From TrEMBL:
Record's GO cellular component terms: plasma membrane
Protein name: ABC-type branched-chain amino acid transport system, ATPase component
Species for this entry: Flexilinea flocculi
PROSITE patterns xrefs: ABC_TRANSPORTER_2 (PS50893)
Pfam families for the chain: ABC_tran, BCA_ABC_TP_C
Gene Ontology terms describing biological process: D-alanine transmembrane transport; L-alanine transport; L-isoleucine import across plasma membrane; L-valine import across plasma membrane
Keyword annotations: ATP-binding, Nucleotide-binding, Transport
One GO molecular-function entry: ATP binding
Matching SUPFAM superfamilies: P-loop containing nucleoside triphosphate hydrolases
Keyword Nucleotide-binding included in the entry's annotation: yes
Ranges of residues in domain ABC transporter: 4-252
Keyword Manganese: no
Amino acid sequence: MSILEIKNLSIEFGGLKAVDDFNLSLEEGEIIAIIGPNGAGKTTIFNMLTGIYAPTKGSIELNGESLLGLKPYQFAQKGIARTFQNIRLFAASTVIDNVKMAYTHQCKESFFECIFRTPKMVEEERKIDERAMDLLKAFDLESKADILAKNLPYGAQRRLEIVRALMLEPKILLLDEPVAGMITTELDDMAKMVRELRDKLGLTVILIEHHMNFVMPIADRIKVLNFGETIAEGSADEVQNNPDVIAAYLGGGYKNVITNA
Ligand SMILES: Nc1ncnc2c1ncn2[C@@H]1O[C@H](COP(=O)(O)OP(=O)(O)OP(=O)(O)O)[C@@H](O)[C@H]1O
């Protein structure tokens, strides 16, 4: 059975069909990319998959359970975590605090246990520290744990966003333009890290990205949107050679994005 089953997902804003009949059946451990021109509906799909927007039509099932009607924090509790197109860190907090804050929803300790710092509470804190440091290490941020998030270089801030999402212990990770603004060497590092996440943690990933040098080698499957509609789906080779995709996206104003990435 697929881990995530999305059927006929659609949303309208006024008369605008931002997403029209989007379908996706996702297997555990897959890396799927959603690509397409600006305004195609990619982020809107993420917003529906995290409870920010309620779809006009369609269904979202995680391991056979419908997620429709849940609030964003409930989507996170069920196992869908995301990063955003624009970096959203607590700039004046340290790197490690940014990461640990994400775990608070999982804490079961009572007010009493927190105030009196019971052995259970201390043990829980130790586990959170350990998990946070393990993740920072996996994303090459271990040595930056104690500096303020705002003082990290741009690429490191993007990696920190991913670490923070992973503290939620998700089954599915949604990455919205994870390499936007990064230089070529950083793209390669990020691709390696995302692949390791899948291989070591069995994580399932859906990503949105305009950098085709990042997307093509990493994605098991690619879905291409244009004006809210899915115009193609397949492997990197299939999608790159699809005339509709070339006309709508790859061959147009986005050529520079690809060759300069
Ligand atoms: N809350 C909203 N109200 C009205 N229109 C919206 C809203 N959210 C998105 N849209 C519209 O839906 C369409 C799809 O937008 P979306 O942000 O999903 O595109 P995108 O593919 O992610 O683009 P980009 O690559 O620029 O991020 C656009 O026409 C956008 O203006």
